[in-house]
Specification:
Layout: E1 4-8, E2 12-19, E3 35-39, H1 41-51, E4 55-63, H2 66-77, E5 81-88, E6 94-101, E7 106-111, H3 120-127, E8 137-140, H4 146-158, E9 162-166, H5 175-182, E10 186-190, H6 191-197, H7 204-209, H8 212-220, E11 226-230, E12 236-239, E13 244-247, H9 260-271, H10 278-293, H11 305-314
This protein binds alpha-D-ribofuranose.
Residues 10, 12, 14, 39-41, 44, 96, 108, 110, 143, 258-259, 261-262, 298 line the site of alpha-D-ribofuranose.
Amino acid sequence: MDERLVVVGSLNMDLSVTVPRLPGPGETVSGADVVRGPGGKGGNQAVAAARLGARVRMVGLLGDDAHGGELRAALVAEGIDDGAVGTLPGAASGLALIVVQDDGENTITLSPGANDRLDESMLRALTDGTVANRADTVLLQLEVPLPTVLAAAREARAAGALTVLNAAPLPAPGPLLTELLREVDVLVVNETEAAGLLRLPDVSSVARDESWTARAERLRLLGPGTVVVTLGAAGAAAADGRCRLTEPGFPIDAMDTVGAGDAFCAQLALALGPGRPLAPALRRACAAGAVAATRRGAQQALPTRAEVDALVSRDPV
Ligand code: RIB
């Protein structure tokens, strides 16, 4: 594989504790020892793409603290070009406080730190005005400011790159989000985000009255040519104007789903491209997410290309 991918997004240090069950409001639950490791949706998707065989450039912002140094080293260790990753004097790096339940379910609380300071002028300064940098694909998420993501998407599209947006975490509806969706070629959302974008009252009502592929088709009306909805253990649903599909996913014992969505997005972004069919891309993306969910941590858990190949060929359609 020789895809060139640019990721514009967040870099966080993840502090993660596994507990028998997630605490409710006002409740204290004791868990295992803290596990610390590199994360952030941007960093995770960049590392996943590199392990899956792409040439990757990361665009992001770190604080000038110890976490910043470790996060940069983690990118470099994967062969990722960190030339457009800045260090902001006096700022803290992004930090994620993660609680993982025994069955893999999790909650995440973010302190964005330097990620929140990646504004449009910083984006231009870091990339010398060329976000796409001759890449085939630009992959975006929403853990950095929305105007920056919109500027990056516009520039990437103008440069002829495929723009892929993982709309997570989903912000409140507004004109910037509406504009962004019109600049995106491929949109990836989970069920909650899909329900939010469609202004549905709650997620559980969705599958009852309409299939996820039909919902994906309706999300296309917001702008993206291709829409993929991830369904956790149930796989994914998608629509691209030519077809509607569901991919049932791979049976696994989930240990920690943090980073599974990032593995999915990176693999999908690499496997899709002009004229490339959706079905095999969706299947590989589900395999990448499945492997990541079988291991603890975010970047530590991301699969290699060989692992995805092995799972896809072990379970033929
Ligand atoms: O998608 C998982 C990521 O979300 C974690 O690594 C954490 O940093 C949060 O950003």
